[in-house]
Amino acid sequence: MDPIIRLEQLNHRSAHIDHIPLELFGQGQGTLDLLREDQVFEAIPGNKLRKLIHNISYIIKEGPLALLTFGGAYSNHIAAVAAAGHHFGIKTIGIIRGEELANQSIRNATLSKAQAQGMDLYFVDRATYRQKDTLKNQALWQEKFGPCVIVPEGGTNALAVQGCRDMMATIGQDFDVLAVAVGTGGTLAGMLQGLAPHQSAMGFSALKSYDHTPLIKAFSPMDQCTLIGDYHFGGYAKVTLELIEFINTFKERTGIGLDPIYTGKMMFGLLEMIKKDSQLKNKRIMAVHTGGMQGVDGVNLELARKGWPQIK
């Protein structure tokens, strides 16, 4: 099948919606549904598929071009870009934060799989990584790796936001409140563009003390949006015993696994807010499972080193 046609088909594919009985968590008012974006396309699961669709289409139409991007040790974005390159026949390059990760003996499953799927990994120290988006370094990447489309860390650009806006067309309007985890803010920015006037959105930040507002406002108005910064559990990729227990309990009660970086934190915070906020108790809430399950094995290795329980 022509890859452009395949991309269009994926772009219009609707995610399954699971109903989450609130009584399982000691709450009986309102409704909570979970949009299973993690199941739309197994090769590139979650919101990363939506963020990459139009970028991949552009590369195929304008090629031959490589896709160069950035990420850390457990990056869902790196995993998704590598999988997309493998699936659609695009050369991919990952600039990875942390020179020590170049040591094969300590490379984690995310990076090993990305490399196995054909991604060229280039490891840089943290000081260089912080300067990755400067015009000087953008020119250096092009000089070093040849003609390529440079996609920011996390995947947010105008084409990614367009893909997340398209996602809203597959859901319908049968909800009052949208709940989504926030990393860079691109997924939320795109979904805000698709809200109906009667709807609102809650964005749960996975980062500690980080202001997502400038990026989101660059693409979308925020008058229908509230950002929640109280459920990061110490910061990006940080986990606690409380979070692990919640994720495992959620899976036992619903059969649905949550990742500890994004969706697990969002769902913990959402259920806490439903319990405390009377304005949410009678609302129809649509939460979004943005994937990220590929990173659980790597997180579990870190937990094992600490002697902590595993995420199921």
Structural class by secondary-structure content = alpha/beta
Give the count of helical stretches: 12
CATH T-level fold name of the largest domain: Rossmann fold
**Assigned CATH class of the largest domain:** Alpha Beta
Tell the overall outline: globular
The biggest beta sheet, please?
6 strands, mixed
Biggest sheet: strand arrangement: 1-2-10-7-8-9
Strand content: 15-25%
Assign a percent range to the helix content.
Answer: 40-55%
Radius of gyration: 19 Å
- Average pLDDT figure: 93
Number of domains: 2
What does this structure look like?
- The protein is an alpha/beta fold.
- The chain folds into two domains: 3-40 and 159-306, 3-Layer(aba) Sandwich (Rossmann fold), CATH 3.40.50; 47-155, Rossmann fold (3-Layer(aba) Sandwich), CATH 3.40.50.
- It has twelve helices and ten strands.
- The chain has a six-stranded mixed beta sheet. It has a four-stranded parallel beta sheet with strand order 5-4-3-6, with helices on both faces.
- It is globular, with a radius of gyration of 19 Å.
- The mean pLDDT is 93.
In short:
This protein has 312 residues and is of the alpha/beta class.
Offer a few descriptive terms.
six-stranded mixed beta sheet; Rossmann fold; 12 helices; 10 strands; 2 domains; 41% helix; 312 residues; alpha/beta; four-stranded parallel beta sheet
What's the helix and strand layout?
Blueprint (H helix, E strand, L loop, with lengths): L2 H9 L5 E4 L10 E6 L10 H16 L3 E6 L4 H13 L3 E6 L11 H8 L3 E5 L1 H5 L4 H11 L2 E3 L7 H12 L7 E6 L3 H7 L7 E6 L7 H7 L5 E4 L12 H14 L8 H14 L7 E6 L6 H11 L6
Parallel strand pairs: 2-10, 3-4, 3-6, 4-5, 7-8, 7-10, 8-9
Antiparallel strand pairs: 1-2
Helix pairs in contact: 1-2, 2-3, 2-7, 3-4, 7-8, 8-9
